[in-house]
Amino acid sequence: MMTSEDPMTNEPRHLRRMTNIWVIASVVVDVLFWFLVGPHMAPGRLTSTAGADQTDINILMVIALPVLLAVWVFLGYSIRVWSSKKNGPESVGGPAAAGHKGVITAWIVTTTVIVLGLAIFGTIALIADHGSGGGEGPNPIWAPAGATAAETAALTKGDSWSPSSGKVLVVQVIAQQWKFTYRYPQFGGFETTQLMLPADTSIAFNVTSLDVIHSFWAYQLGVKADANPQQNNVAFTDTKGPGDFTVRCSELCGLWHGAMYDFGKVVSASDFESWATSTESANATNTSYLAPFAWTYVPDANGAAGGYYIDANVTPYSKSELYGAKQ
Amino acid sequence: MTITADRPEVEEGSTLVPIPPAEGGGPQEGVRPRWLSQHVGTALICAAIGYAIGHWFGNYISSDYIYIANSGSNSVADFLALAFGVVGWLAGIGSLNYPAAKLIGREAKPQVTVDHWSKFVRFSMDHKVVGLQYIVGVLLFLFTGGLLAMAIRTELLNPTTHVFGPGTYIEIVSEHGTIMMMMASSLVVGPLGNYFVPLMIGARRTAFPRIEAFSFWVFMAGYGVIVSALPYGGFPTGWTGYAPLQTQAGVGMISYLFGFAVIGVGMMAAGFNILVTIIHYRAPGMTWSRIPIFVWSILSTAALLTLATPVLFAAGMYGVLDKTVQTAFYVSEHGGSSYLWQNLFWFFGHPEVYIMALPGFGIVGELMPVFTRKPLFAYKVSAAGMIGVALLSFFVWQHHLFQSGIDPDMRPLFMLTTELISIPTGFLFLVAMGTLYKAKIRFEVPMLFVMAVFFNFLIGGLTGVFLSDVPVDVTVHGGFFVLSHFHYTIMGGLVFAFMAGVYYWMPKMTGKMMNKKLGLAHFWTMFVFFNLTFFPMFIIGLLGQPRRVFTYAKNLQGLNDFSSVSAFLLGLSFLIFLFNVFYSMWINPVKAPSNPWDSLGLEWQTASPIPPHNFDRIPVIISDPYHYSEEGAPPFADFGDDLLEPVSGSAPASTTASANEE
Predict the structure, then answer these.
(1) Which residues fall within 8 angstroms of residue B520, CB to CB, at 6 or more apart?
(2) In B, which residues are within 8 Å of A82 by CB distance?
(3) Residue B209 lies in a domain
(4) Domain count within chain B
(5) pLDDT digits over B104-127, tens only?
(6) Residues B204 and B334 in one domain
(7) Best of B411, B475, B540 to disrupt the A interface by mutation (most A CBs within 10 Å)?
(8) Are B434 and A99 within 8 A, CB to CB?
(9) Which residues in chain B have Cβ-Cβ distances shorter than 8 Å to A67?
(10) What is this structure's pTM?
């Protein structure tokens, strides 16, 4: 380390001292964070998107902590060294008072480089990870291979899925005040309150709502997609090993929003298949009464407005044939 | 060198306000008789009459509509009651006298500000009175919202034992958010902007004193409207008011929608007035490179208020129409779209975020040179940064909709624009660090709040970068992480800056010093417990707790309880502040010196108490405002006479004396 006093003025080299403190503190804090906190950072590594989210958060933290420390070290150093001991005001003057073009330019260049770097990093992560588990709306543009075909096929009756098929599993999430239900179009379109997923599989979540806006937030899966009435919102993820996860509604949806949560399981592909086929046959009668599988549903003519907009053409309690599928 | 020689002749009285100043409290020619005088009492009576008329009228025209006859409540009547109530309030306070008289072709009677305490409960066109009125107004909002926050934290003490029912809880959450947002959008522009911008630019008044006073009384009407949601049964949507839930909600929703529209009118009026004032009412020599940084921040904020708020007004009124006469702007079954609300709301809502941040930047920028005895570092960069933030803030709103299911094509663009906005925001820290460098920092109470702003806003700003990153946003959107983020920026930034401004400018506004010991107690409790309240919420959010819930995972109870207890103590610190105000103003007032902080700011150079027209002669500005460190630097302003005492203590501040000696 260089001498910390300027030989010309006997004044300590403040910037050098600050830099030394900052570099040491940053390295220590970053290393401690990366190894102690990083592996436990939200949202875990149960799926590809969750793992990527975790890595992204950790990378951003490793960049953000030195920035935080740079300002904190400067503030702390200023408080320590440049506090006025006297009460009265005095002028300080001198060259330190003037604006410094070099400092300003360096600041702007540095922040711009960091910011553009982050934007590029975020964009790459977003595209490479098929939308990062965020809802992409009805026409996703960052779909994993085979997902578009699987989505199209899921609408035809008799589509199927098995672990060996290598197909993307299509799961529909139907939100309503105040619960989630799930339909599996590749297993006859049965509807259930249990969310089961096979391990090591690409999943396409199709999220919709029957009434108001909800949000399907499967925390450990790294998936979040708003559930909008009359719109399909697609999010992708690849599951890894088996595990449990929590689903919470993260868009305020009225009275029992706080109680709108659910739990799901990622199980081995063969366990999933046996659960799905047995549930399909057990629920066969119920499924026959359901509306045909579709991306969106209108529960009755009054829809999201909860009976506020009365449509004279349809009785509020319509027959099941009118429990219409709407594309 | 004689500075006075360059001084252009200012014709005496040429820029005087057309409002005659009152001499004492006696009756004057052309003034209303006492029994007809208007004040907050008549406003309340007229508001009640308006409410009753509106309710009757609404029932009269709409009670046989099928959907109203079936629903058991008449939303048309409820809305018209509020609307007529607001008009009655404005008529009762006297805001409509002038336009009404002009409308029927008569000269309006002059509305005289009587120099009597009652001017604070009247329609006053003195920007200094309006500023003080606004302080009371924003504190009313702040303490109402704060009490609701205490209620939220009480409910969250335990995940399974509930203090409130879910309906009451969601009402409290929604009212808290909405009231606080309304408060924050006027917190600095209203009180400190109206009070000090004319003083800082050497003007004798604002451009449109009637519009200025109108903006305050509309703001207070907005308080009445939003609080009316409580007897109407509240609204369940939070401050964001998302649409299908909005359509489904009861009549309390109308208070929200119309309340935002009313507040929006006040914001537009205040912004427009300040904008024109800054552009047109600067003193001679007050060039763009010489206006104080606080004025730059208010200028950029006023531009946002003027340009972004009309969208809120329109969005709110569309919602009112949906709720009352069954238009379907936001109802997808009938051709509308719930995304329309989301887009309109956030198109306003994101500039709104900077409406709530920029004035804070201005206050800290203005106070730093005073307490560091140094010029503001990189003044031009700082001003450019504020304008940059204001411009960019119109191009980021879709980052609130990253998972909403809109077309994803634009997502990288909005991620980029959102991250770009951190460059001009970062200038705040460049300015701070450059100004602190080799300074002589005096840690008076306002300066402590300034330092706290940098501490808090840094955390708030950096976590904003996390939220702008789409992959990370998947995990943190809609959870306690984002909640903590915006409390760090709005409360940690703006409210702390507001407190800095209050402690700094109160001596000028009232002639009394704020008590320092109580000020220190207030600062330390507020700073410590603010951080202890909101920092755990980042962790709570990362651990998966969504916003606006009344229950949560059991393993998060420890963190939530910690946060709740800290929140109660944070509430206590606001009581210390309130006590300090009462103590310093009424219980044990200490007369303030004319310039207690040895500031060079123009607002400190006028007489104390400030004369009705601010400056007996319009000052001529002859340099930029932050020559704190230079011996023998030219004075900031030339008053052209020796009416004022030279400022004591400060080296370069002998504004008038040195000029006269020569």
Answers:
(1) B445, B448
(2) 372, 436-441
(3) yes
(4) 3
(5) 988 877 766 667 778 888 888 899
(6) yes
(7) B475
(8) yes
(9) 462
(10) 0.91
